[in-house]
């Protein structure tokens, strides 16, 4: 397919979600009809997706087994070891694969028979590299828009807007196989966003990125979920990414859902364990705490003015402040310690 790259200067918006590129009466009857149906039928109270006894086999291999769950809109993490069924679930939710058994819906669309209409509302960022040699970045993103049902002119206009939003404006006319790893990840995100979907399915979006690139990608995803109101399902083995971006989590193990819910509600609070933050010379303060029976633990990932404190039975938190005052130390933080997502994940698997 040869795409027309002639394009004038576009006025871009800061908000991806608020850019509406198809005015009433324009061309592209299929896309226009889908968009009108989406606007008319949009119901924010509807769950993001529901699955009921979904099972899927690859030959004799069971990838998903009797999966039943209901997930609300928002940012959702999908966690599991290799082979747990994460990619299979994403493909079923996208309508690319029919489950062997069971039923379900994504934003009101039946997963078994709503392929085109469903994909007009869902954006997919795969883990595998996407390459069509010879295409420029803007052509590549525009093609993704056309494959989602958009008319060519609107797809090209939207491609320019999304690439500008994602910081690829200067590189949009370069051949995309010449992009760096970080640029390719943003380009894949652009193909998922080009048709302004309500739901993003993201498979390992920070794979291969250096620390700065990973931080930048996570900020983008957080902004899309928070400021622009996109729902997203983030599948990754980097649990810290999910902790940063997501509100809820689905934990898969050997094709079965072992936990689903809001992360804060699933976390365990460690009884008698606190996270301390201070300002000032705290060496003597910490020694006095230890003399009172408090166990001070250094947190390898924390700055030098933070520590974990495990207190004895009958401890009063007022003692923290009294001892700090004795040594002219200012306590900036005293919070109960909660388990991180990695600890939560391993605890759940042990219980199973």
Question: Would you write up a description of this structure?
Answer:
- The chain has 352 residues and is of the alpha/beta class.
- It has two domains: 29-44 and 90-265, Rossmann fold (3-Layer(aba) Sandwich), CATH 3.40.50; 269-351, Alpha-Beta Plaits (2-Layer Sandwich).
- It contains twelve helices and 14 strands.
- The protein has helices spanning 29-41, 86-94, 115-119, 137-147, 152-165, 181-193, 211-226, 239-245, 263-266, 283-291, 318-326, 341-351; strands at 49-58, 61-71, 75-79, 101-106, 109-110, 122-125, 199-203, 231-235, 248-253, 256-262, 269-279, 295-297, 306-310, 330-338.
- The chain has a six-stranded mixed β-sheet, with helices on both faces. The protein has a four-stranded antiparallel β-sheet with strand order 2-1-4-5, covered by helices on one side. It has a four-stranded antiparallel β-sheet with strand order 12-13-11-14.
- β7, α7 and β8 form a beta-alpha-beta unit.
- α4 (137-147) packs across α5.
- The chain starts with 28 loop residues before the first helix and ends with a helix.
- The model is unreliable at 1-44 (pLDDT under 50).
